[in-house]
Amino acid sequence: MFNKHPVGPSDGDDDGVRVRFTGLEAGYSGTPVLRQLTADIPALTMTALVGPNGSGKSTLLGVLAGVITATAGQLRHIGGRPPAFVPQRTTVGDELPLTVRQTVEMGRWQERGPWRRLTRHDRNVVDAAMERLAVSDLAGRQLGELSGGQRQRALMAQGIAQGSDLLLLDEPTTGLDPEARAGIAALLTELVADGTTVVQATHDLEAARAAHTCLLLREGRLTARGTPDEVLDAGGVPW
Ligand SMILES: Nc1ncnc2c1ncn2[C@@H]1O[C@H](COP(=O)(O)OP(=O)(O)OP(=O)(O)O)[C@@H](O)[C@H]1O
Fold it and tell me: How many CB atoms lie under 10 A from the CB of residue 79?
């Protein structure tokens, strides 16, 4: 694919960079998925990971989040707090006996440690995250009995409750109705304006267009990197 920007870090210094990876490789049980990925994630911007099913977007998010270990290459988080990772809502078990409030409270575990009593500050952070995602009314409901959009908002509230400056989201708007998608898009724009770096894997063209930077993956390789116009229009929509 035609690509105006070189596929790699923009330059050698760390200015304005939140995450830098070089020659990154990762996979599952010895099966390689990501191959020689090299790129920067600019700080205080929104980056969209785009590409066809199975191209490695979720795997890359998992590596950035630290839940999947790279098998080769280098990954550097430049400054900031440990990332907050919001997985695809379909990967969160329906049978989990958790209420919405308990789910959001888990966002404080990294700081507080699991099973420790939450402090008043923690509870305030949880309340604020639930209000921001409009799930306060659902606080006592079981996660498994929520609609897709409600569950997505609960998981996003958990991510926000972590208070990280780096939010990693796996398909936060896929399958949601237009109103719910617009709500999430507006929230992400606000979060970036408030000082958060957002990285989202997405098949949602509007979400990708709203990003500052798109990284296009194909078969585990980074094949284009640039503005949405450059990446999405250069060779047709890439999925
Ligand atoms: N837990 C796993 N165990 C083994 N292989 C996996 C696992 N998760 C993903 N894979 C494989 O890794 C490759 C990349 O998958 P990944 O989920 O990262 O792609 P994706 O771009 O996020 O796809 P989608 O758009 O469908 O969500 C695929 O071939 C997939 O089958």
Answer: 10
Task: Evaluate: CB of 32 within 6 angstroms of ligand 1.
Answer: no
Pull the structure tokens for residue 205. 């063209």
> In this structure, is the dihedral angle defined by the CA atoms of residues 28, 38, 52 and 45, taken in order, positive or negative?
positive
- Classify residue 82 by its DSSP letter: P
Residue with CA nearest ligand 1 atom 13: 54
Q: Whose CA is nearest to atom 16 of ligand 1?
A: 56
Q: Beta strands of the chain (E only): which ranges?
A: 17-28, 31-42, 46-50, 72-77, 84-86, 166-170, 197-201, 213-218, 221-226
pLDDT tens per residue, range 70-118: 999 999 999 888 999 998 876 666 667 889 999 999 999 887 776 778 8
- Judge whether 65 and 119 are in contact, CB under 8 Å: no
Q: Exposed/middle/buried for 232, CB within 10 Å: 0-12, 13-18, 19+? A: buried
* Spans of all domains in the chain: 1-83+164-239, 94-163
Span 168-199, pLDDT tens digits: 999 998 778 888 889 899 999 999 999 999 99
User: Which CATH superfamily hosts domain 1-83+164-239?
Assistant: P-loop containing nucleotide triphosphate hydrolases (3.40.50.300)
Q: Is 62 in the pocket of ligand 1 (CB under 6 A)?
A: no
Q: What is the ipTM of this complex?
A: 0.98
Residues 197, 44 contacting (CB under 8 angstroms): yes
For residue 58 and ligand 1, the question of a CB distance below 6 A is answered with: yes
